[in-house]
Amino acid sequence: MSTLPQGYGVRRATEADAQTIHSLVSAYQSAVTGRPDYTLEDVVDELAEPDFDLTRDGWLVFEGDTSPDSRLVGWGWACRDGDSDIVNIDVFSSDDEVAAWLWATVQVRAAEIAGALGHSMVTIDAGIHRGNLGSAARLAGDDFSIAATYHRLRIDHSGPIPAPSPPAGFVVRNAGADSPHPDTESIRRGGHAVYEAASADHFGHVTKPYAAWAQGLAVETVHDWSYLDVLYTAGGPAGDDGEPVAMVLRSRQFVPDENCGYVRELAVRPDRQARGLGRFLLRYAFAADAAAGYTGTILHVDTNPQRPALGLYLSEGMRPIEVIDIWRRTAPAIR
């Protein structure tokens, strides 16, 4: 591991550091990619992430010492993904020596996390904006390679959009507290079940039980259960609920900086795919975002050519606005 240069101090982050971290990351992103892509809400949610240990998984580097008046010059973190061998990392610093120390430190921590979970190897992932050439070069030098590429897509809304009617034989149920359905817990569980079934073979997907999935969402400032809609087969004569077959989970992640809704997850159960259900839910999300007064809708899509999702989104008028590469390497875990 590289050595932290003299003249710098390091300490762990606390929730009270959110604003300082946001200022550092925004300035860093503006310098390397031309604009900030990080809100204060993003920082707050990351620090509250259940899989992230504030006492062990992040490092703040200051010029001079760690006194309250010292200038923050670096932020790096490693965060497990459930109990899997995947650990996500990221580093923000315009100081080359500080960045080198942080990248080395978070990779060691990633190996420690995987080892503590009982894995013999660790899969380390870092999501890097395509314009961040410095971080990409550093990761390449550390034997990372691009394992997946995500496009951020956007569509603009100039006014209200009529909500589409569900396909014949299906009904939409909302999971929010004000839902007319009496059992929103069952709707949330249904959405989770569809998401897991549809995402099992997606890049980087880690299966999580319902309780962990729900907890991870509930702690986020941008989450609201009313943004989860689940498509069910229509109930029979006895008035039963049918079965969940598709879901769309929206959030307010891009509201603070772009006044756009965000489609966090759109999933259709494998045995129900290629029947137009995903297209219906995408249009449903557009209408919901427009009704909320948002000027657009954003989502991310893996550009794996074996999946038709990118073509679906482009055919509905969405356009690419950002490219994010997932750099990955595997290494022995530290046990």
Descriptive labels:
32% helix, single chain, Aminopeptidase, twelve-stranded mixed beta sheet, 9 helices, 29% strand, globular
Average the pLDDT over all residues and give the rounded result. Answer: 94
CATH architecture of the largest domain: 3-Layer(aba) Sandwich
- What spatial form do the alpha-carbon principal axes imply? globular
N-to-C terminal Cα separation, in Å? 17 Å
What proportion of the residues form beta strands (DSSP E)? 25-35%
- For the biggest β-sheet, the strand order reads 1-2-3-4-5-12-6-11-10-9-8-7
Proportion in helices: 25-40%
Structural class: alpha+beta
Q: How many whole angstroms does the radius of gyration measure?
A: 21 Å
- Total number of strands: 12
CATH topology of the largest domain: Aminopeptidase
Assign the CATH superfamily of the largest domain.
Gcn5-related N-acetyltransferase (GNAT)
Briefly, what CATH class of the largest domain? Alpha Beta
Question: Which consecutive residue ranges, at least 5 long each, have pLDDT under 50?
Answer: none
Question: Major beta sheet, specifics?
Answer: 12 strands, mixed
SSE layout and pairing:
Layout: E1 8-11, H1 18-33, H2 40-48, E2 58-63, E3 72-80, E4 86-92, H3 96-116, E5 121-129, H4 133-141, E6 145-156, E7 170-174, H5 184-199, H6 210-218, E8 228-233, E9 244-251, H7 255-258, E10 260-268, H8 277-291, E11 296-302, H9 309-315, E12 319-332
Parallel strand pairs: 4-5, 10-11
Antiparallel strand pairs: 1-2, 2-3, 3-4, 5-12, 6-11, 6-12, 7-8, 8-9, 9-10
Helix pairs in contact: 1-2
Description of the structure:
Helix 1 crosses helix 2 (40-48). The chain has a 12-stranded mixed β-sheet, sandwiched between helices. It folds into 2 domains: 8-150 and 326-332, Aminopeptidase, CATH 3.40.630; 159-294, Gcn5-related N-acetyltransferase (GNAT) (Aminopeptidase), CATH 3.40.630.30. It is globular, with a radius of gyration of 21 Å. With 335 residues, the protein is an alpha+beta fold. The longest helix has 21 residues, at 96-116. The protein has helices spanning 18-33, 40-48, 96-116, 133-141, 184-199, 210-218, 255-258, 277-291, 309-315; strands at residues 8-11, 58-63, 72-80, 86-92, 121-129, 145-156, 170-174, 228-233, 244-251, 260-268, 296-302, 319-332.
